[in-house]
Task: structure prediction
Amino acid sequence: MMRLPVLDHLTPSSLPEALRMAADHPGARFVAGGTDLLPKLKRGQLDAPALISLSRLPELQTFSRTDDGGWLIGAGVRLATLARSASLRASHPALWQAAGQVASPPIRSTGTVGGNLCVDPRCFWYDQTAPWRDAAGSCMKCDASVVCRVAPNSPRCWAVSSTDLAPALGALRATVRLVSGSGERTLPISELYRDDGIDYLTLLPGEVIAQVQVPSSVGWDSAFWKIRRRLSIDFALVSAAVAVRRVDGVVQEAKVGLGAVGSAPLFPEEPVTALLGSSLDDSDIAAACAAAQKLARPMETSDLPSSWRRRVLPVAVRHALREVRGDDVSAERRRYGPQALLPS
Result:
């Protein structure tokens, strides 16, 4: 049995108190659901003298519609709350689909929006127990003096981004509100990430995600597709989110988000260029899929070969674009992944 190391557990009653605790305890880590952080602490991948709980802070629990039809979603909102929301399903289906396909129902009931956005990039070499790493050799992500096992000649880590929410939120033009002891700032989702498997977030020391702001989707259609080995539990092998705004059947605006094909979610412009001014016919969709495939450079960091993942990425993009076009993709949904179950 893996056990947590001995550490302090701090329980602030407000966000300002949590930020003060972070300043007073260097090296402490924020924790909400802990579905990613706690297993890594048990496996000895990360270290922390203390954990600062964010799970009960009222400032992080917002889940409400804005006057124009957007959403304000606190970083502490459980993923299950999003997956059970009929209103979110109707207004922003890509986000609802992404939340409903994270891991499994028990994990969605514990995991949070902020936690999924900050989930640590994964790699086969990195996500092992300490005895396995001692026997087979560690990697750069655990030990800076060791080479990257995936790309030994590379000066950087190639662990792969595995957040499900970020591609969907990026396609939906969402922003994140960040809070620290020195103030607040707001960033587009794309600017929250760096293309680096170790230093993968642009968060400043002591800074925390407080809220996600999702703009109105009036006039937009969206979809999210995730392909994984099993239909539950597993992280994405590839994922794709698309959102398009059409007038009289012609695409006026579009956004594409790609997941699990790099150390950061990708929000490329090339597939968007292929879609603008189109009617989303099969040739337009094929051009956008080809553009997305050219940009994807998955490495041998996770399950199944990178060459397979690169071939499958345009499949996810194609299904997402067919769904926003209005095609019946229910058979493909049953094959590649379940929809979230709404309460009866």
The domain at 1-60 is CATH 3.30.43.10 (Uridine Diphospho-n-acetylenolpyruvylglucosamine Reductase; domain 2). Residues 338-344 have pLDDT under 50 and may be disordered.
